[in-house]
Amino acid sequence: MKVWFLLSLLAGLCGLPATGLAQTAGPDGAETRAALEAEARMVESVRVEEGPEAALARAEPALARARAELGEDHPVTLHLMANSAFALGELGRPEEALARLDHVASRWAALGWDRTAFSQATDLYRAGLLAELDRNAAAEALLTTLLGQPDLSSELRLRALTQMADVLYRQSRFEDGLAVAAEALTAARTLYGDRHDQTLEALGLYGTGLDLTGDDRALPILRQAVEGNVTLHGAADRRSTTTLYRLASARMAAGRPDLAEPLLRQLFMGEPDLALRAIYGHRLALALMALDRPGEAEAILSAAVEMKRQGGQSLSAASSLSMQASALDRLGRHREAEPLHREALALLTASGAGWEAESSAWLALGDNQRALGHPLAAIQAFARARDLATDRLPDGHPRRLMRDQRLAAAWLDSGQSDAALALARQTADAAVHRLRDARANGDLDPWDTRRAVFGTLVRAAWDTGADLPSQSR
Length: 473
What we know:
globular, mainly alpha, 23 helices
């Protein structure tokens, strides 16, 4: 039997001709097998033409019959399971989809198909599901294995490179991700030229990496990617909206939330997919917070948290939950915010989110505790936030200055003026050096860090009767 129908599905995902991937899977079977083969082809057709919900409704009874009459590991059963997994993924049920594809992949390996093009294409889809579930280390490991296979085609290698760049960005490894994105862009231009889907996707990822590393070339490159996708596919196409989101994010990074907000609102209001709508909502809330509109931000974040929880994205939900709590703090609703801060911190810690996410959550909790008049709890939270960042960020980095200032202010609140003054002097010295760079000055201003640093220094000096350092006067 030719499993051309399975290969056609995977080829469609990867932009490859199905005939170039043909494999055999044993002799033709009996009537039941032929009927289930036809049903598998129909499920694939329904998924493409009518959508994943209709495809899943058709696949499930056929899969149950295949399991009963052909066996769990029969090629036709595996094909139906793969088709149902793709439908589940499109329906926003990534955990179920991944479980089924993991089983399919393991059986293909047992059958000796683990180095065929269709199994490699499935691994790309599995990596995407892992990233969607915030399991980025596992996604990176799978992609690393795939990219290490010498028989990987140029087309699949390009797909793997673009996914790897995204996964590295998700782990805040921006320089590594930018290098991979540059490699993907070169490969795409070699294979397809400048005006092709894959080239524009790589261009968008490259622009994202430039944005994340603070390179001024990001905005024009992302505009170019948006214009290219809109020209090829129209403004409503997923590829166009993805590049538009990247452009909005770059405008945020450039200190222009006023320009980013309408783009993000357009994406948020027009997106039917709940997982993507939650992502757009989170970024829109960031823009609204920067524009001092916390009430609007809190309402959007509340919806985004629920969407992410429904999609099994616990780590991403924790990030939105932490920001929702901060929005409540900005509205003066500190008691409502406190349990959200603590829940977000617990989720981030349990999921191994990394020091950056944990440090930010501790910082936010410290602000909340200080507002509630709990100076000792605030000191503990700020100290933890500072400890997580101190060994990982260079002297004078805005996030280090912010944490030092908050801790010094909390010490002042509790009457520990001498300790506060020592830290405030140190922070002010670092801020002076940092502010000599006009670009760094822009980094500090959105969060009023400069004013806060020197305000804390003056307050600490006043409380202790000490003189200010001459360079900070």
